Amino acid sequence: MQGSIIDLAVPFFLVLIGIEVFYSYFSGKKVYRWNDTVADLSTGILFSLTGILVTIVSLWMYEKFRIFFSLQALFGIPEIPLGNPFGFENGNFRLYLANLGGWVFVFIAVDFVYYWFHRATHEINFLWACHVTHHSSEEFNLSVALRQSSFQRIFEYIFNLSIAFCGVPWQAFLLVHGILKIYQFWVHTRLIGKLGFLEEILVTPAHHRVHHGRDPKYIDKNHGGILIFWDRIFGSFAREEEEPVYGLTKPVTTFDPIYTNLHVYEEMGELIGKTKSWKDRILILLKPPGWRPASLGPSMVAAEVDRKRYTKYDPLVSKGRTIAGVVEFFVWTIFSLLALRFFKSGNVALWKLFPVIVYLIYGFHHTSRVLDGTVFKKTSFGILAAGLMILSWILFFL
Prior knowledge:
Helices cover 58% and strands 2% of the residues. It contains 15 helices and 2 strands. Strands 1-2 form a two-stranded antiparallel sheet. Helix 2 (34-69) crosses helix 11 (257-274) and helix 11 (257-274) runs antiparallel to helix 12 (278-286). The radius of gyration is 23 Å and the shape is globular.
């Protein structure tokens, strides 16, 4: 399995996170906590593991849709020229405008569709459930960029079928979409201020800080991927005034990546179970987050944050327990990276990825309980040991 441009960028992500950690430490502006950062990276690793299967299936569906249902297939419209826009001919530099125009079209299309997908994940409850994970941190730093839902890509690729409809081959789509995702990484920082005239053109750290704010005036603003034009055009733009309070209006009180991936689905299930009207059950899925049918009381409205009384979820645990949690996290990370490498190489049967993911999910869940300060039962360590033996048998003897 061929790696993507994002795979090539991961080492640079980690280097930049390291630089931000050291700079924040020496500048006296604390933007990282061990427990929260471990939660960010754990969630990101699970996103990568589950993403192998999602990406394979989604790109196959994307290309089949393009082949049979694109504008070119249905109406005979010419293919989009996507050759190299730059070249040399007889020793002279040449700019191929048709190819350049093709790539500009793909870039605008990917950024435009991303804007609407991102906006939909904030305005439609069942889509919010697959995006809320990314907003669940009460910090805002580069590692938060990696805190992604394991389910988001499923719905995102459905939106991207509109790009396949335009006739964009999957290779070109994946390249430009990867560039957008890489761009999105660097805007997750508190250490870069406003950037002058670029604030009028691009999504900047200041714009994206607003997007992650839980202050009422900042909620559901600045959904753009690279260009901020879409927010200005469609009325979802807000400038950063004072620095936001980050996170959810109803903060999660755990570092568990399983809970942060699933808690809104659980809440929707409970609401659906309490209402008897099928119309209301459907509306619970389709209305904005916080909406409630009249039979269940008033809808939830975001309240102003009392900054003097507000405290982040940061359970007090011993230094030894924190070290144990971090070490445990690094163990699961090494296992995960090895799994990703072997499965992408094609040397291991793809079905074996399922038990690996299940085991690593439990592993990262166990680490979160260490950092949450949970009292352990002996059975949790027994599950880890038994799971490792079963997994070894599956990987090496089946």
